[in-house]
Amino acid sequence: MSFREEGEDGRGDLRKPFLHTGSWYRMGSRQSSIMGSSQAIKDSSISVLACVLIVALGPIQFGFTCGYSSPTQSAVTKDLKLTVSQFSLFGSLANVGAMVGAVASGQIAEYIGRKGSLMIAAIPNIIGWLAISFARDVSFLYMGRLLEGFGVGIISYTVPVYIAEIAPQNLRGGMGSVNQLSVTIGIMLSYLLGLFVGWRSLAVLGTLPCLILIPGLFFIPESPRWLAKMGMTDDFEASLQVLRGFDADITLEVNEIKRSVASTSRRTAIRFADLKLKRYWLPLMIGIGLLVFQQLSGINGVIFYSTTIFESAGISSSNAATVGVGAIQVIATAISTWLVDKTGRRLLLIVSSSGMVLSLLLVAISFFSKGFVSEDSTAYGILGILSVIGVVCMVIAFSLGMGPIPWLIMSEILPIKIKGLAGSVATLANWLLSWVITMTAPLLLDWSSGGTFTLYMLMCTFTVIFVTIWVPETKGKTLEEIQFSFR
Fold first, then answer.
1. Does 233 or 331 have the greater pLDDT score?
2. Cβ neighbours of residue 237 under 8 Å, at least 6 residues apart?
3. Of 38-42, 284-288, 395-399, which gets the smallest average pLDDT?
4. Which of 39, 162, 362, 441 is most exposed, with minimal Cβ within 10 Å?
5. Using alpha carbons only, what angle is made at residue 296 by residues 294 and 301, rounded to the nearest 5 degrees?
């Protein structure tokens, strides 16, 4: 499998962005902009932040898809007369679709740009939600879930890459973490809205992020690094100028990006054989490893079926508890977004994975111990509370590091020459494991709740070891400096 990058002469339309960067920022440098006052546009942080907030609608859609199955399980099962295995398949089909989307994501983002790929991702998401909303049997339900997953698979790769490529190095960690923060907001919204609206109405609401995203894409610039790679020098410099502010001197950054692009041969084919080189296989191994361990922690099993877990723990208001977990996840991820450029990526990953080990140990012990006490005893109630505390602590620990940072590091360390191919491989690995976890979680929980959380705990222990040995610190470095460090 390979793809061939375009030559310098760039014949064909593939070199042009599917969605052009537009002319509003060119006008803004002279007089005004349709985006607001010229002073606002000149503020670099506002320019970049506006772009990040618009593309963050994609991860919100991602999170809404992940969280949808939890508050709707009983209603969908009852209305469409589904078995437990049929609903488990429904929940996991988003991951199957995401695997297909992941395979295509890198190539799409390389050929038609980051904005074009997000446009493509939004359309099947909208169709998928509508299919679920109007479903009368499992066929439409399954088809809608697959379409959603396909769009989410593209979004999960493209958004962190776009943010990493437009953000200044001193803000890249925090802005990159907005990706996962938006995912948690989407999850919380699906939990919260699921308390008040039916599952069909909730599916219709799921179309809103992408319906807003599509027009929003026309008002933000394309990634300057992608434009530079495509040889579109004028657009590349104009895009970077608006992102940094019209009064900013971008000469140094322009020259650094040009040198990085020039150091790779744009006429050569990129093949899996290239990944044997250390400067390619090492960052790819780290990226894949983090995204795989992120899923092996069992977080999607907890998020997708949190209501069922709380019911098993003896919590009567399981739906309300699920909403509470969603809110806590948003807060913890927001804290991580604030911390990541201060403490660094590596430290947060170690603290996060270690915290998950301790939390999962508490949950496993609590569920095992409940088998030795009477259901009417005080100890049984206390153990139920401890298991809930453990699940909440797990979600907090995950959100502080293992949630946002693997995607951030993947977008930072992959060399531009192999980013499309390697990014697809890493994203595919993540979604493959996500599918396995989501599909097996209900069966494992039915077999043994304590055993399930013990298994997740062991995976988190391996994560601590992996991060300690292999993961480098990328804080305070440009993307070009990070890639050079692997040579």
1. 331
2. 224, 250, 254
3. 38-42
4. 39
5. 95
- Taking the C-alpha atoms of residue 33 and residue 304, their distance in angstroms, rounded to an integer, is 43
pTM of the model: 0.80
Half-sphere exposure of 130 (CA within 13 A, CB side): 9
Q: In whole angstroms, what is the distance from residue 106 CA to residue 368 CA?
A: 44
Token representation of residue 366 = 């609590």
Arithmetic mean of pLDDT, 441-470: 90
How far, in whole angstroms, is CA 206 from its chain's centroid? 17
Q: What are the tens digits of pLDDT across the range 181-225?
A: 999 999 899 989 998 999 999 999 999 999 999 999 998 999 998
Q: Give the Å distances, CA to CA, from 298 to 13, 286, 356.
A: 43, 19, 10
| Residue with the larger pLDDT of the pair 160 and 310 | 160
**128-166 pLDDT per residue, tens:** 999 999 999 899 999 999 999 999 999 999 999 999 999
Query: Which residues face 269 on adjacent strands?
Result: 4
- Averaged over 392-418, what is the pLDDT? 89
pLDDT of res. 396? 93
Distance CA 483, CA 477 (A): 10
Torsion-angle region of residue 81: left (phi > 0), alpha (psi -120 to 50) or beta? left
The closest of 61, 59, 77 to 307, measured between CA atoms, is: 77
Structure tokens at 283: 């960052």
